[in-house]
Design goal:
The protein has 254 residues and is α/β, with parallel strands linked by helices. It has 2 domains: 31-152, Response regulator (Rossmann fold); 158-252, Winged helix-like DNA-binding domain superfamily/Winged helix DNA-binding domain (Arc Repressor Mutant, subunit A). The protein is built from 9 helices and 11 strands. A 5-stranded parallel sheet has the order 2-1-3-4-5, with helices on both faces. Strands 6-7-8-9 form a 4-stranded antiparallel sheet, with helices on one face. The chain has a two-stranded antiparallel sheet with strand order 10-11. Helix 2 links the parallel strand 1 (31-35) and strand 2. Helix 3 packs parallel to helix 4 (88-98), helix 7 (184-194) crosses helix 8 and helix 7 crosses helix 9. The chain is elongated, with a radius of gyration of 20 Å. Bound molecules: calcium ion. Calcium ion binds at residues 37-38, 80, 82-83.
Length: 254
């Protein structure tokens, strides 16, 4: 479980609604993650989308959005750029490193520079506030159609980040071309964290996800992180890849 999951699920539950009567086609039942901090706009968009039969998930800040994008695997993300905690552009960059989920940016009229950056970061489209719900729905349908037309992309068999390379099928790891001698558990732990860049996991989360048991102490995780750092960090005392988030846990840099 990722941190704050309960909190996230609470939002999810409150805002999730499927209107069976309208769900004629697959685009109509798509799950849309709305990332927006202005409550009145959230309510208006949620209402409009649910009327069309979409399932709506809401995140009010960037950090919650990241966790929901990971945990809920939405079909499309509506992303406001001015957000608390983690800005929309930064969020867009992190999301793109991990998935092809279609992203439509909600931008202010004055935010042209942000819009350009957002599109360069891989957002699929944008809509300028204030917009009509009709226009928003048209954009959503178009983007969903495009993404559904794309063939299913297989899960990546190789994870790579600045010289660090994990081949998940061959179970081989290398750093700047030099083979790394990782134990099975080290490999699995690194693969898991690299596969979720920027997401913080507590030691208990990692025991559950990587070890598959809570019957070993959380310090086991710390020990493995320590060993991994000796192998993959230039300076294990000042890690640049496997980062400690004080009081919470560990993450691979986003
Ligand atoms: Ca905002």
């Amino acid at each position: 479980m990722i941190p704050k999951k309960k909190h996230v699920l609470h939002f999810t539950k409150a805002y999730r609604c499927r209107l069976g009567a309208h769900s004629g086609s697959s685009t109509m039942t798509a799950r849309i993650l709305l990332v927006e901090d202005e409550k009145p706009l959230v309510d208006a968009i949620t209402y409009a989308l649910q009327r069309e039969g979409y399932t709506v998930l809401v995140a009010f800040d960037g950090q919650a959005a990241l966790q929901m994008a990971e945990g809920e695997q939405p079909d499309l993300i509506l992303l406001d750029l001015l957000l608390p905690k983690l800005g929309g552009l930064e969020l867009c960059r992190i999301l793109r490193r991990r998935s092809d989920v279609p992203i439509i940016m909600l931008t202010a009229k004055a935010g042209e520079a942000d819009r350009v950056v957002g599109l360069e970061l891989g957002a699929d489209d944008y809509i300028t506030k204030p917009f009509s719900m009709r226009e928003l729905l048209a954009r959503i349908r178009a983007v969903l159609r495009r993404s559904q037309a794309k063939s299913e992309t297989p899960a990546p068999a190789v994870l790579e980040d600045v010289g660090l390379r994990l081949d998940l099928l061959r179970r081989e790891a290398s750093l700047h071309g030099q083979p790394l001698n990782l134990t099975t558990r080290e490999f699995d732990l690194l693969a898991f964290l690299m596969g979720h860049p920027g997401i913080v996991f507590s030691r208990t989360d990692l025991l559950e996800k990587v070890w598959g048991t809570l019957n070993v102490g959380p310090e086991t995780v710390s020990v493995h992180i320590h060993w991994l750092r000796q192998k993959i960090e230039e300076d294990p005392e000042r890690p640049q890849r496997l980062l400690t988030v004080r009081g919470i846990g560990y993450k691979y840099r986003g």
